Every structure is written in C-alpha cells, then in structure tokens.
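Here is the promised in-class demo. Please do not try to memorize the tokens; focus on the logic of going from shape to residues.
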C-alpha cells in the first residue's frame, strides 16, 4: 500500500534493491558471485546497509556495492535501476573465462592470458537474449552511438548466437573510464592487444564450435554479465567498465573449471590484483564523474 504514495522511480528502486534512490552513490561496483561480493564488502570503510545495497568508502571515495548475481537478465535489472538513481559510473568486478589462443588475420595467436590474469575489456560482444531485446528496442539509435559496432556474421561459423538483422553487435567502454584503468593496470597484466570479450548467457553451452566463433572476432575472454553492463551503460550514458580475473582457460581441458575439480590459487590472486587496481583508480573515476 505504501508504494502507492511514492514516485515510480522510487517504487522501482525499492522493488529491486529494497531501498530508495537517495541511498545509491554515484559510483556503483557490481560483483556477481558471493565470493567477490564478500571480498569487496570486507574492504569497505564506514559500511552501511540499505536493503540490498552496501555503502562505504574505498580509498576515501564513497561507493555503493550491489550484487547482480549471475546472468545478463539480473544484471540488466540492476542497470535499469541505476539509470533512475542517476548513477554516474558502473564498475563490474568479478571473474571471466579466458582463451589460450584466438585468431588474427586468420592466423592463430597466443592471447597471453593465464589463470589469474586480469582482463579489462575494451570491447564486449552482445550475444545473449537480453541484449538482443535491447538492441531491437533501440535499433534506430545504434548507428548514431559511436560505442556500438555491427559485425556481419562470418561464413565460417558453425555455432550461431542471437543476432540483429544478420549482424552481431559489440559495444565499447567509453575511452574516458577505460583509459583510467587500462593505463594503471601494471606491467604484469600488460598485453599488446586490447581485451575483447564475448558475453553470452550460455555457461553450459561452450563447445569447440562456440569457442571458434569467439575466435573469429578476436575475442580472448568470455563472461555472462558484461554485456548488460556495457550495453545499458552505453544506452543510458553511464560510463561502464569490467575488471575481471581469469578463473579458467576455456580452450585447455585441464584448466577448464567445467571439466576439472581443481581451484588454482592464481584465481584469488587475480581478485587481489583487480581490487588493488580499483582502489588505485577510484579517485580518478570520482574526478571524472564530478566533471560530468
């Protein structure tokens, strides 16, 4: 009954986050899995809980931590709420799968990724069902948005993903926020090529044919949530970025978490690396959003 007496924006915020827009800070950090959520919350100073939102300070910058849980539909709902809460930056922190090899000019090349590597995607391919719905809804505006690119489907593909008018679409992180993190990630995680991530909703449908499709588009990593973060960030003018630790190497059977029961210690090291990069760069992100 009480929801009848508040604004639609406040109602939606309360429905999905169990708190009101005033309790969401301009910079929002979005872990997906429980391990990462607990890790980041433990690092917060001056913590306060508002429904499903945990607020606090990292490196003297106020942030909100909101767990998206797994998958693009969950993440998209959170991003929709962040839009009405006037969020100014969305930073996804979690894990992704990596590839040992990809393609460039039809030649197989080493990606340089290993267990525990850090991935900061410049480009994310949008091939999940949720993204396809948003792409259709906003088709008239995609061409005018420089962050989006369409890619005519390759004839070599044998594994098909949802597409829009015969093309796969990708979206970039804005250079303003991407440069902050990419320029500060340290020598251990530097590579010659920018990270390109394939984002889909098919964790248990990743046969060799699917992996070869990712390779056709020069991807070196894969996850299920960056699609919603980058896509809705681009549509709603919320600077968005993903900082990801490589949890497994998809195209190496003995390093694929779906095929072995070992957890490599490098996975937790990558979480430390991602957090230290986040903490280091947050003051610069704060300065960026204050300008906007």
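The designed amino acids, position by position:
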């Amino acid at each position: 009954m009480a929801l009848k007496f508040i604004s639609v924006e406040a109602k939606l915020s309360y429905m999905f986050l169990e708190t009101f827009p005033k309790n969401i800070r301009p910079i929002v950090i979005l872990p997906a899995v429980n391990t990462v959520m607990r890790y980041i919350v433990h690092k917060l100073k001056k913590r306060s809980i508002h429904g499903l939102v945990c607020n606090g300070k990292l490196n003297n910058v106020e942030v909100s931590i909101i767990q998206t849980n797994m998958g693009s539909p969950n993440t998209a709902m959170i991003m929709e709420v962040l839009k009405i809460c006037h969020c100014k930056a969305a930073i996804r922190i979690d894990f992704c799968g990596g590839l040992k090899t990809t393609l460039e000019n039809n030649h197989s090349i080493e990606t340089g990724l290993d267990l525990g590597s850090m991935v900061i995607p410049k480009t994310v391919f949008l091939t999940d069902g949720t993204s396809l719905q948003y792409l259709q809804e906003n088709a008239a505006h995609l061409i005018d948005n420089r962050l989006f690119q369409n890619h005519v489907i390759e004839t070599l593909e044998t594994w098909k993903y949802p597409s829009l008018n015969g093309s796969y679409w990708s979206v970039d992180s804005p250079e303003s926020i991407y440069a902050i993190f990419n320029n500060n990630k340290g020598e251990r995680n530097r590579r010659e090529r920018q990270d390109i991530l394939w984002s889909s909703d098919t964790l248990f449908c990743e046969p060799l044919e699917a992996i070869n499709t990712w390779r056709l588009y020069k991807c070196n990593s894969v996850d299920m949530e960056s699609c919603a973060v980058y896509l809705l960030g681009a549509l709603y003018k919320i600077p968005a970025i993903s900082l990801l630790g490589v949890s497994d190497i998809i195209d190496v059977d003995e390093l694929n978490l779906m095929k072995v029961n070992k957890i490599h210690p490098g996975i937790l090291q990558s979480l430390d690396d991602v957090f230290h990069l986040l903490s280091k760069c947050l003051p610069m992100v704060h300065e960026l959003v204050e300008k906007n």
